[in-house]
């Protein structure tokens, strides 16, 4: 179902500004690479890695580049919740026998600082590797901690942004649900009137006509008495399907009353809306429905009104004119379409 409500709803127009959107649209690897370059320059080490458990996936190990080898060495470490600093890997009881320590590329120094998510769970490490033994001074340890904190804030920002998008999505869904008739899947009365007002203003600015029609099944009262509400609702759902097949995708349709459907046709003249209403009437009449294993013929009556005949009419007045036209159609014996005309402002009620 397409309607101007989709374009005008404040929830659907919620957008972040272009700079913010550009910042968060960057891949996480690109953003973390900035911290890695910062670590290399701040500590003067061979390499710095931010690992969230998938470091190896960032590199093509088929090429066996020095960076991929260093990343593979870092992936061998489990995340720890304390600062880990190995001054000389050759002197380490276990790592001193590691192939990348005793052999090429002869790694000598390793340090890792934990990274936590915004809930306090350990999710990764920022790691330093070098080819000379070294010891981090107190200032360097503080900087190391600061870089880890900045990474945590970057990840927390990313998570909060995703949560915000999810909230916006849920709000949009709730907003839309509040405007939809749960049985028919059309706009409800509030939404279809709002759609009419929006389209009337838009058509007025564009100097185009707008038409609306109000229709109802002639047999609804009898069906409700003889067959009950469930069958009546089913017939109404099927009627909506017939009506929808006869109008354009961008025409708005809503449930205006218990048994009334209101269709807004932007850009349609009084001739067009009459043709559409007749098409709807013929479609319903030519497709009888089966009720309790018995074929039942259905008919529909409609009243129409258009701004090319009533150029000064406000939305409420145009609806009132269409309602009077519908009453005239019913008084004329049902199964017909009546158009509101200036020469017959009161019509037959």
Automatic annotation (TrEMBL):
Top-level taxonomic group: Bacteria
Pfam families on file: GGDEF
Enzyme Commission number, as recorded: 2.7.7.65
Domain GGDEF: 208-342
PROSITE patterns found in the cross-reference section: GGDEF
SMART domains: GGDEF (SM00267)
Catalytic class of the enzyme: transferase
CDD domains: GGDEF
PANTHER family given in the database record: DIGUANYLATE CYCLASE DGCC-RELATED, REGULATORY COMPONENTS OF SENSORY TRANSDUCTION SYSTEM
Name this polypeptide is given: diguanylate cyclase
Organism in which the protein naturally occurs: Undibacterium hunanense
């Amino acid at each position: 179902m397409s309607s101007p409500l989709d374009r005008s709803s404040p929830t659907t127009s919620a957008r972040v500004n272009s700079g913010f959107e550009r910042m968060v649209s960057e891949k996480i690897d690109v953003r973390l690479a900035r911290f890695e370059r910062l670590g290399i320059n701040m500590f003067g080490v061979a390499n710095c890695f931010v690992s969230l458990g998938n470091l190896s996936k960032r590199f093509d190990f088929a090429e066996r580049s020095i960076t991929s080898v260093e990343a593979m060495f870092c992936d061998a470490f489990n995340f720890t919740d304390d600062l880990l600093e190995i001054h000389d890997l050759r002197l380490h009881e276990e790592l001193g026998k590691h192939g990348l320590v005793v052999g090429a590329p002869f790694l000598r120094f390793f340090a890792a600082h934990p990274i936590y998510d915004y809930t306090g769970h350990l999710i990764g490490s920022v790691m330093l590797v070098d080819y000379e033994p070294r010891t981090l001074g107190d200032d360097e340890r503080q900087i190391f901690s600061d870089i880890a904190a900045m990474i945590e804030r970057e990840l927390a920002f990313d998570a909060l942004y995703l949560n915000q998008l999810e909230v916006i999505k849920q709000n949009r869904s709730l907003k839309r649900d509040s405007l939809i008739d749960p049985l028919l899947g059309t706009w409800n009365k509030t939404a279809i009137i709002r759609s009419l007002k929006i389209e009337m203003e838009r058509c007025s600015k564009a100097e185009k006509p707008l038409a609306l029609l109000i229709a109802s099944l002639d047999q609804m009262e009898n069906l409700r008495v003889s067959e009950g509400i469930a069958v009546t609702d089913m017939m109404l759902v099927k009627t909506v399907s017939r009506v929808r097949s006869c109008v354009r995708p961008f025409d708005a349709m809503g449930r205006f009353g218990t048994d009334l459907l209101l269709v807004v046709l932007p850009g349609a003249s009084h001739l067009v809306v009459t043709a559409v209403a007749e098409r709807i009437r013929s479609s319903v009449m030519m497709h009888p429905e089966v009720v309790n294993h018995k074929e039942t013929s259905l008919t529909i009556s409609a009243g129409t009104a258009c701004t090319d005949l009533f150029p000064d009419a406000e939305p409420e007045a145009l609806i009132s004119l269409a309602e009077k036209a519908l009453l005239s159609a019913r008084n004329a014996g049902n199964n017909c379409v009546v158009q509101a005309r200036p020469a017959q402002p009161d019509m037959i009620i």
